[in-house]
Design a protein that fits this description.
Elements: H1 12-19, E1 28-31, H2 36-49, E2 54-60, H3 69-80, E3 83-88, H4 98-116, E4 120-122, H5 127-140, E5 153-154, E6 157-158, H6 166-176, H7 192-207, H8 211-236, E7 246-247, H9 248-253, H10 256-271, H11 282-286, E8 293-298, E9 302-307, E10 310-315
Parallel strand pairs: 1-2, 1-4, 2-3, 4-6
Antiparallel strand pairs: 5-6, 7-10, 8-9, 9-10
């Protein structure tokens, strides 16, 4: 392995700098798992922002007893002069899907820590993760949103390595002499994402070596177009979230695509999260009676309410059935 002072021969630092997400002197909380992607991100953040502006957060989910991820993170942070915060979770408290619980718990902890020193939260998602995310969502649920992938910035969460392939972060760590742990569960076929990585992505690369990059590029184009569509949706909806509404007569005048987007937007805002499937019921929603009061229950715990010709959405309570 070469010295840590070696040049960035893989374009990783240049790509992170081009993203504009790691401003010199900016406060950043880097989420580190100990794997190559997050270790690479931590080193890049230090190079671009300065070690004194960086803190690292490692979450021990308690799912892989005997592993040494925490020790790896401690060693890397010590070498880079970065303060490391370690938090442990109790997997026996998990609710629902274990991976979903772990992800939600990580971000809850990160938000709390980042808020304490006014930092953004940097995560090591790469272009490879982006391609896998798009393919997974496309397989799991229909609709335009499945193809948009992850945004470089979502609220306080930033993804400076989103244009960099996973192979480059591994090569970067090797070139910089950075120790990283390899998660053995990445090869397990028990997880859908691993099956996509080892099966679908590999098969697509056999068809065309740039398949992964093409998926990522398509997502970037669609996100740009989505911004235009979002502006059109904002233009036909009245009020401010989460109490926005639209006259039924106006909704019916819209092209089918814009009608679906408006219904989905209002449904999402009503419950404060994604409400999958609402858009597919857009024509039924638009067909609610204009006179008096009419209601229609939609997937995701959402209720469409037409009151004297004005449509709004609300979250159904458990008492509603």
């Amino acid at each position: 392995m070469s010295s840590k002072s070696g040049a960035d021969g893989h374009g990783v630092v240049a790509a992170a700098r081009k993203s504009g997400l790691l401003a010199p002197g900016g406060a950043v909380l880097v989420m580190v798992s100990g794997g190559p992607d997050s270790v690479c991100l931590l080193d890049v953040a230090v190079r671009l922002c300065g070690a004194r502006n960086i803190k690292a957060l490692h979450i021990d989910h308690g799912l892989r007893p005997g592993e040494h991820d925490t020790e790896v993170c401690e060693s890397v942070c010590r070498d880079l002069g970065v303060e490391l915060i370690v938090e442990s979770l109790d997997p026996t408290t998990a609710r629902g899907n274990m991976q979903g619980w772990a992800r939600e718990s990580r971000y809850e902890a990160a938000s709390r820590v980042a808020e304490s020193f006014g930092a953004v939260i940097a995560v090591g998602h790469t272009a490879s993760d982006q391609a896998e995310t798009v393919l997974y969502r496309l397989a799991a649920a229909p609709g335009r949103r499945a193809l948009l992938g992850m945004r470089p910035r979502s609220g306080q969460v930033i993804r400076p390595l989103l244009s960099v392939e996973r192979s480059a972060t591994l090569a970067y760590c090797e070139a910089r002499g950075l120790t990283a742990a390899i998660d053995p569960t990445n090869d397990s076929k028990a997880y859908a994402r691993n099956r996509i990585r080892g099966g679908l992505v590999r098969a697509l690369k056999e068809i065309h070596p740039a398949a992964e990059a093409n998926v990522v590029a398509t997502a970037e184009i669609l996100r740009d177009e989505a911004d235009v569509l979002d502006g059109l949706v904002d233009g036909i909806i009245d009020g401010k979230a989460p109490m926005r509404s639209i006259p039924l007569e106006r909704l019916r005048r819209q092209p089918p695509a814009l009608r679906r987007l408006a219904v989905q937007r209002l449904a999402d805002e009503a419950v404060g999260r994604l409400a999958p499937g609402a858009a597919r019921r857009a024509d039924e929603v638009a067909g609610l009676a204009e006179h008096g009061r009419a209601m229609l229950d939609l997937p995701g715990g959402v209720r469409a309410i037409a009151d004297r010709g004005v449509l709004r959405f609300a979250q159904r309570s458990s008492a509603d059935g």
